[in-house]
Automatic annotation (TrEMBL):
Entry's transmembrane regions: 34-63, 84-111, 123-149, 161-181, 193-216
Family per record: Belongs to the nonaspanin (TM9SF) (TC 9.A.2) family.
This protein's name: Transmembrane 9 superfamily member
Keywords, alphabetical: Endosome, Membrane, Signal, Transmembrane, Transmembrane helix
Compartment annotation: Endosome membrane; Golgi apparatus membrane
Source superkingdom: Eukaryota
Membrane topology label: Multi-pass membrane protein
Major location (coarse): membrane
GO cellular component: endosome membrane; Golgi membrane
Length: 231
């Protein structure tokens, strides 16, 4: 509960604080005033954090008993040995390739508009690419979850999340390529801002894709176990 409310904001605040310190050291106009950072922290501490805690408590109290589609054993059975390509780590790494491929071309224009100061105006196409990303992420995560369950591994929850979230890893790797090939940035100041802001973007993208993938896998697992006999 506390981790949910604080992990992502803490990471972004830490990165932003580090970048702001660098900007102050270089006397850049990109430096955020200290008062603005205090206001952002107060908004998180007194609005966002309490609302997450309240939502968690209300959700736990109102959800009731788990409505499992089949009988669940209290004693977990051992997971058999499986081939290397059916391990959660491999499934997680491979799960982000297709979603990244669906946004690969669009990422070039997004990076160009943000870092090379070009005007971006095809927002309708971006919306279409975003919808395609969500659909591909759900489908790929469901396939990975099916392979995992078929290998008699019932630890699919975090694997489905990491499989979808690994899209952000490939986006960050692409940003490294874009930095060296498509930009003329140099120096510690520009490099730190480029990779710092890109890291925050990838963190948000990873959480978004991971949540969508986990939701799709959850609906898929509940659906298949509702329609088959389970001993």
């Amino acid at each position: 509960m506390v981790l949910t409310a604080s992990l992502f904001p803490f990471l972004c605040f830490s990165i932003g604080f580090a970048l702001n310190t660098i900007a102050i050291f270089y006397r850049s106009l990109a430096a955020i005033p200290f008062g603005t950072m205090v206001v952002m922290f107060v908004l998180w501490a007194f609005i966002s954090f309490p609302l997450v805690l309240l939502g968690t408590v209300v959700g736990r109290n109102w959800s009731g008993a788990p409505n499992n589609p089949c009988r669940v054993k209290t004693i977990p059975r051992p997971i058999p040995e499986k081939k290397w390509y059916l391990t959660p780590s491999v499934i997680s790494l491979m799960g982000g390739l297709l979603p990244f491929g669906s946004i690969f071309i669009e990422m070039y224009f997004v990076f160009t508009s943000f870092w090379n100061y070009k005007v971006y105006y095809v927002y309708g196409f971006m919306l279409l690419v975003f919808v395609i990303l969500l659909i591909v992420t759900i489908c790929v995560t469901i396939v990975g979850t099916y392979f995992l369950l078929n290998a008699e591994n019932y630890h699919w929850q975090w694997t489905s999340f990491s499989s979808a979230a690994s899209t952000a890893l490939y986006v960050y790797l692409y940003s490294i390529y874009y930095y060296h090939v498509k930009t003329k940035m140099s120096g510690f100041f520009q490099t730190s801002f480029y990779f710092g802001y890109t890291l925050m973007f990838c963190l948000g993208l990873g959480i978004l894709c991971g949540a969508i993938g986990y939701l799709g896998s959850t609906l898929f697992v509940r659906r298949i176990y509702r329609n088959i006999k389970c001993d």
